[in-house]
Amino acid sequence: MSTTNVSTDRKASIKDRLTHSFPIVWDQLDEIETAAVFEMGERYKSFITLSKTERLCAAEIKRIAESQGYLNMDALPEGFSPVAGDKLYRVNRGKALVMIVVGKAPLEEGMHIVGSHIDAPRLDLKPVPLYEESDMAFLKTHYYGGVKKYQWTSIPLALHGTARKENGELVEIRIGEDANDPVLFITDLLPHLAKDQVTKPLGEAITGEGLNVLAGSVPLPKGDSESEGSVSEETLKDKVKLHLLKLLEARYGITERELVTAELEIVPAGAARDVGLDRGMISSYGHDDRVCAFASLEAILGIQNPEKTAIAYFTDKEEVGSMGNTGAESAFFETTVAELMLLQAGHYHDLMLRRALAKTEVLSADVSAGYDPNYSDAYDKRNSGMMGRGLEIMKYTGVRGKSGSSDANGEFFDKVARLFEANKVCWQVGELGKVDQGGGGTIAYILANKGAEVIDCGVPVLSMHAPYEVISKADLYMAAKGYMAFLNR
Ligand code: MN
Ligand code: MN
After folding, report:
1. What is the CATH classification number for the domain harbouring 185?
2. 336: CA distance to ligand 2 center in Å?
3. How confident is the model at residue 10 (pLDDT cuts 50, 70, 90)?
C-alpha cells in the first residue's frame, strides 16, 4: 500500500460525494434490460409507422386500449360506478384521447397525469388543392407547425386523411405507404439553375406557396371523356387534373367537392428505421411527440392498482398552440374528469374539480432538443439533453427571459427526480438550446394554470421537426420507465 493510492482513493470518493453527472443509459443496463430496450424499440417502430396522423395515432392507441380491456367512457353500462383498478378511455373527435386507471383514493385527492401530444408538423392540403399546370397535376398545401420548408422537397411523400361523402360516410384516404403504392413529391430546383436560389437565406429559398405537391402527369384517357359525352375531346381542358379526379373517384368515391371539406395531410412516406450499425437509434417521421405518447401508453399499460387515479392524456394541436376543441386548451379534459367525479361520487360541484386539479401532479411529456455536436453553437452543452443519457427533465421552456414558460417549482422538480432515482430511471436535464437562441413551449402551462404541479419531461430528439427525426432507444425506454414510476403511485 503506498500513500499515493490512498490519497487517490480519497480524491475519488470526495468527487463522487460532492459532484453530480448524468450517466450513459447503456452503461447502466444489464443484459435483461438491454434486451428490453431493443424489444420496446421494435414495438415503437410498428406503432409510429402506423401513426402518421393524429387521427391514425388516436385510433391505434384506442385499439390497443380496447385490447387491454379499457372501457369506452361514452358507452358505459347504465349505473356504472368506477372502482379502484377500473380502466377507462375516452376519445375526443377521433383526434385526442385519455386513458384512465382509477385509483384507490377519490379523485378529489388529485391525479397523476402524463400528457403528450399526437399531432406533428406536416403539410395540410388547402381547401382547393388540385390544379393543373404545364401538363402536370399539383396539390396546394399550407404547412402545419414549425417546418423548415426546404426539408420537404425531394423526398417521397404520402397523403393521409379523411373525406366526408354526400351520404355522410367518412372515407379514409391513404396513398404512398404500401410498397406498390405511388408516392407524391415536391420538386426542388436543379443546382445547375440555382444560382439565385442558393444565395437566398435558408428560410426563403423555398416558400410556403412553393410547397406544391406533384400528383399526376397522365391525361384522362380518350375513352373516358367520350363515354361521358357532352364535351368534345378538343375543348376538354385540364385533362391531367380530370384524370386524377377520376382515379380518386374510383378509389374513394369522392369528387373535387369532397376535397374541399376533407382533412388531408402530406407526410413523409415510409416506415421508421433503425439508425446506426449498432441499431441504438430510430429515425422516423413524428417522434415529436408520438415518442412520448408511446412511452406514456407503455407506462399506463404497465400499471395495475395505483393509489391516485393515473391518466395518460394524448392531445392534439400542440404544434399550433393547443387551441380548438381537440387541443389541450379545450374543455375536453376537465369535462372528462368532472364526468368521472359524478360517476364516482354520485354528485358533482365545481369545487371538487378545482380541488382535484390543485392536488394533481403532471408530467408534460414532450420531446426536447437533443445536443447535436454538428450545431454546437446553438446549445449550452452543460445544460442540454444528451442522446442516450435518459429521460430529460426541462424545468422551463419559453423564449428570451423564459417568456411564456411554465417554470416548474423546484420542490416538485426534486420530487420527480428523486422518484426516478428510487426507480432506477436514468434522467438528465436540459434547456431548449442556449439563451436567446430561440425557444419554444409545450402544454405544461395549461394544467399548471389550473393549479396542478407540472414539469416538462421527455425524450431528446435530433433533427426535431424535420421530415425524419432521430431518437435513442435507450431514452425511449427510460421515458416509459419514468412515466410508469410516476403513474404507479
Ligand atoms: Mn412537441
Ligand atoms: Mn414540436
Report:
1. 2.30.250.10
2. 26
3. low
Please tell me the distance between residue 121's alpha carbon and the centre of ligand 2 in angstroms.
7
Identify the domain containing residue 379 by its residue range.
18-120+285-487
Nearest by Cα to 354 from 449, 445, 442, 486: 449
- Give me the chain's average pLDDT, please: 95
Centroid of ligand 2 to alpha carbon of 84 (angstroms):
35
pLDDT of residue 5: 47
The answer, as to whether pTM is greater than 0.90, is yes
Q: How many angstroms is it from 409 CA to the middle of ligand 1? A: 21
| 166 and 177 housed in the same domain | yes
Q: Which ranges of 314-379 would DSSP assign to H, the alpha helix?
A: 332-345, 350-358
Give the contacts of 463 (CB within 8 A, at least 6 positions apart): 469, 470
Q: Which ligand is nearest to the CA of 442?
A: 1
Domain count, the chain: 2
Q: Are strands 213-216 and 136-144 parallel, antiparallel or unpaired?
A: antiparallel
Residues 342 and 481 in one domain: yes
236 domain residue, yes or no: yes
**Position 3 confidence tier, pLDDT thresholds 50, 70, 90:** very low
Instruction: Examine residue 458 and state whether it is found in any structural domain, yes or no.
Output: yes
Expressed in angstroms and rounded, the spacing between residue 443 Cα and the centre of ligand 2 is 11
On whether both 154 and 257 belong to a single domain, the answer is yes
Distance 365 CA to ligand 1 centre (A): 8
